[in-house]
Amino acid sequence: MTQTIHPVLLCGGSGTRLWPLSRKSFPKQFSALSGDESLFQASARRFVAPGFSAPLVVSGSDFRFIVKDQLDAIKVTPIATLIEPQGRNTAPAVLAAALVLDQGEPGALMIVAPSDHVIPQEAQFRAAVLAAVPSALAGQLVTFGIRPDRAETGYGWLELSQEAPGFAPVPQPLKQFVEKPDAATAATMLADGRYAWNAGIFLFTTTTLIAAFAEFAPNILEGVRASLAAGTLDLGFTRLAPAEWAALPDISIDYAVMEKANNLTVVPYSGVWSDLGGWEAVWRESGPDASGVVTHGNAIAIDCKDTLLRSEADSLRLVGIGLDNIVAVAMPDAVLITTKDRAQDVKLAVNRLKAEKAPQAETFPKDHRPWGWFESLVIGNRFQVKRIVVHPGAALSLQSHHHRAEHWIVVEGTAKVTVDKDVRLITENQSVYIPLGAVHRMENPGKVNMVLIEVQTGIYLGEDDIVRYEDVYARGAGAKG
User: Fold this and answer.
1) What is the pLDDT of residues 385-405, one digit of tens each?
2) Structural domain range at position 328
3) pLDDT beyond 70 at 481
4) Domain membership flag for residue 64
5) Same domain flag for 87 and 228
6) If DSSP states are collapsed to H, E and C, what string results for 280-294?
7) What's the domain count of the chain?
8) Which of 211, 239, 269 is the last residue of a domain?
């Protein structure tokens, strides 16, 4: 009987190379950049096949309910979701997953995959994974090498021991990892034929990986074990202990163990792959037309070439005329315009916005919460207007505010509203006033989403002006808890 492969999905990153669509509060893996599903959903669905178990997910605290909602939407139930108190790169995250899997199944076979990659040929990819299984069961640390089609300087590379005809998925010893090269080195490696892109996807048994950490990074093994042992269960999630986790080094699995080990195998992969590491990659993977143009959403291109135009707002029309080599991405609260060859410098814009303390640097306009989401429609002096969507059966916390009053108007569905000791049902076109300081709660008792408009008035309207008394999602005080 073939041993089951356990997918481990890493989705704690907060990359900004796809700003303004990807931000710290809602990174790219949860966005639908390629197709109708998010990259995270596509990554989970990739392993819904015979021979693979349900995934184990490693994520950050702010994303735990986004993870749950997106997996529920595609009817995938994870075997576990580990919550990192803070990001410590991939080495601690992968090891924590391995230790959890090993507790339930000693020597479990695990495939580690970032959740923000595009791999459209799913059956071909799974075939490459299955071809790697005998090597992993024999005690090898297996990585996957992508057939390169250009002299890419933004990826790490892998040097194979020999050429791989057609990049067929035939395991072979890995000669070495190669750092991100300069342009000349990348061109030389591309022409050589013995080099592949490093996808950061790995297959091994828990026994092999734990032994590698014991040999090359025992301090990380000790710290991750301590964090797991002191961890807590929270609404179906496993929270790793913060003090022990914070003491771990911020290091990738490549640096921690892979580049030091001598039991390395690489499996070539000839299919399409992209990490969507920037807007130029999104343009390339989106299938440009004969003029090299890609449009998304309410975007129109007139006499343009080699250009990406994306409108991420239903009410915002983006029109480009006579553009060449341009990326333009329009959000409700921010617009990016750059040439494709400077798109990787978007981090400079994010750093500038951070320095100016602009919320657009890190905060997504749609704020996802365990009960649903909200977005600000209008912000003015001493007032704010929001659209709030509450999922069926969900409830906001019982709370009060020191600095603002609120007026709620239901536009879809029915709301069960608590204001101090008064509890009532509010239906479409009805409203209720929440005085400053009143203890209140909003619930959706129905079977469809409940939508309301909230008008806030007061001297301070920040999300941290929340005093929680009861919360079914076990959050504390403050913006998200």
Assistant:
1) 999 999 999 999 999 999 999
2) 279-352
3) no
4) yes
5) yes
6) HHHHHHCCCCCCCEE
7) 3
8) 269
